[in-house]
Amino acid sequence: MDDLYREVIIEHYKNPSFKGKLNPHDYSFSDSNPLCGDHIQVELRVDERGIVSEAMFDGHGCAISQASADLLMESIVGKPLDEVKQLSKQDVLELLGIDLGPVRLKCALLPLKVLKAGIYGLGEASDDLVE
Amino acid sequence: MLNVEILREDFPILKRAVQEGSLLAYLDSTATSQKPLAVIDAMNEYYRRSNSNIHRGVHTLAEEATALYEAARDRITKFINAVSAREIIYTRNTTESINLVAYSWGRSHLKSGDVVILTEMEHHSNLVPWQMLQSELGIRLEFIPVTEEGLLDLDAYRILLERKPKLVSFTHMSNVLGTINPVAEVATLAHSVGAMVLVDGAQSVPHLPVDVQALDVDFYAFSAHKMCGPTGIGILYGKEEWLVAMPPFLGGGDMIKEVHLHSFKANSLPHKWEAGTPAIAEAVGFGAAVDYLSKIGMEEIQTHEHAMTEYALDRLVEIPGVKVLGPTAEKKGGVVAFTVNGIHPHDVAQILDRDGIAIRAGHHCAQPLHEKFGIPASSRASFYFYNTAEEVDRLVAGIYKVKELFG
Ligand SMILES: Cc1ncc(COP(=O)(O)O)c(C=O)c1O
C-alpha cells in the first residue's frame, strides 16, 4: 500500500541480518541524528587486500534508518574499502528504492555518514560525506 | 461550551487536504499553533496601510505603526496581568527570552559555585543557556527529579533548596508530559530561600489563564507562535525592579537614551531591552492573537482541551502496545506523548501523515526527559481549541493502521 514502507524495508527493520557487534574490528564509529536522537554504530573487518570481509551495525532508529543500515552493510561486504569510500546518497536511495523528503532523507543517510566517517577516521559524521 | 465548528471557520488551513482525499487533522499545536484570519488580516492590513519604522519618525505612518506596536504590548500586559507594559519585553521567542535572563541577569548575578535549580522535564531552551553559564562561570546545576508518574518531586525540591540556590527556572507546562506544574508553590518556596524564579510559559500562556502577579514569579517567558500569533516574536515578562537593575542584553538603536563616542545611557523600560528595528508586523499580529484568544476565553479553551485530552487518553490506552507518558488528564494540558511497542515514532508519524494526521515524532527538544524514561523518542499528539473528538478518532484509527503495517 505504502511506497515508503515497502515490504523489504519493514522486513529489514524487523529482521536485520547485519545487526550486532564485531569484536575485534578494524573500523568502528558511531553518531546520532540530532533531530530525533537516532543512533547508529558501524563496525567493519577489512582483510589484508583491503576488502571488507564483515560489516555490522547497531543502535536504534526508525524503519528507514535501520533498513538503510542493514542494506548498506549487506552491500559493502566483499567490496574494496576504496570503493566503499565513494558511496553516495544516490547509492543509498537505490538500495532503499524509495523517494524521501528532506527530513526522512536524514534518517536514510545516517548509516552511510557514520560508515564513511569511520573509514576516513573523522571525529564526526558530517553531512558533506553524503552529498 | 466552545462552538468548535464555528471557530474552525477562522482557520483557512484547517480546510486544506494534505494528502489526496484526507483533510488535515492538525494535532501538533504544541510545536506551533495555526493562525486565525484575524491575525493574518491584521498583519496584512498593517503592511498595506501603516508600514513604517517605529519610535523614530514623526510622520503619520510612523505614528500609526508606533501606536499599533505599543497597543499590542498593552493587550499582552493585560492578558497575563502584568503590573505595567514596562514589564513586557518583546523578544524573538521563549528561547531568546530565557537567554536574555541568562545573559544579563545570570552574568551579573552568578559566580562560580552558585546553584541554579532546573527540572528534568525542561525543554532544551531552558537547559542549554544555563549549561553555557555552567561552562563560562562555573555555576552548579541541580535538577528537580520527575517522578514515574511525570510530576515534579517536590520533596526532593525542598531538599535541594537547602543548597541556597540563586535561581529556580522551570516550565509551567511540559511540552512532552503535559504536566502542569504548581508554579505558585514552587515560586513561594524558592523565594523563601532568596532565589529568583523564572518560568518557561511557552506551553501555558496559549492554553490556560495566566496571571503573573498571582503566580508571583520574577520572570516569565512565552512565544506568540504557539498562541495563534506569528513566528518571530515572543515575550519576556520581568518584574520592573529587576529589569531596571539588570545590564542591557543587546546594544544598538532604540535601546538608548543618549550615545556619545565613548558611552551610552540606556533607554527606559521596556525599550532598554529592544535594540534595533523589532518585529513590528508580528507585534501587531500578536496583539490580534491575544484579542482573539480573550474573546474565546482562556477558561473555555482549557475546558475544551481537557475534554479532548481525557477522551484521547481513554482511547489510546485501549490500544495494545501503546504507552502514554505523563500523568492523568486532571494534572495535565492537551499534550499526549506515547510510544507504540516495537515501532519507531518517526514511522508512526509518517504513516499517520499519509492520512492527513499531523503529529510530532522525536524527542521534542527534551532529550534528557526521554533518557530519564529510557526511550530515545516518542510520538506526540497535542490539542488546541480547534481540535475535535473526530480527529482523535482518526488518530486512533491511524495507530491501528500503523500496527497492522508493521505486523
Ligand atoms: C516548554 C517549551 N519551552 C520552550 C520552547 C521554545 O519555544 P520557541 O522555540 O518559541 O523559543 C517550547 C517550544 O518548542 C516549549 O514547548
What would you note in describing this structure?
The complex is a heterodimer of chains A (131) and B (407). Chain A is an alpha+beta fold. Chain A has a single domain, classed as Sufe protein. Chain: A (Alpha-Beta Complex), CATH 3.90.1010. Chain A contains 5 helices and 3 strands. Chain A has helices at residues 7-14, 63-76, 81-85, 89-96, 102-120; strands at residues 27-32, 39-46, 52-60. A 3-stranded antiparallel beta sheet of chain A has the order 1-2-3, covered by helices on one side. In chain A, strand 2 (39-46) and strand 3 form a beta hairpin. Chain A is globular and about 40 Å long. In chain B, helix 11 runs parallel beside helix 14 (389-406). In chain B, 40% of the residues lie in helices and 16% in strands. Chain B has 2 domains: 41-294, Type I PLP-dependent aspartate aminotransferase-like (Major domain) (Aspartate Aminotransferase, domain 2), CATH 3.40.640; 298-405, Aspartate Aminotransferase, domain 1. The mean pLDDT of chain B is 96. In chain B, strands 4-10-9-8-7-5-6 form a 7-stranded mixed beta sheet, with helices on both faces. In chain B, strands 13-14-17-16 form a 4-stranded antiparallel beta sheet, covered by helices on one side. With 407 residues, chain B is an alpha/beta fold. Classes of the chains: A alpha+beta (131), B alpha/beta (407). At the A-B interface, helix 2 of A face helix 12 of B. Bound molecules: pyridoxal-5'-phosphate. Residues 93-95, 123, 125, 171, 175, 200, 202-203, 223, 234, 365 of chain B line the site of pyridoxal-5'-phosphate (PLP).
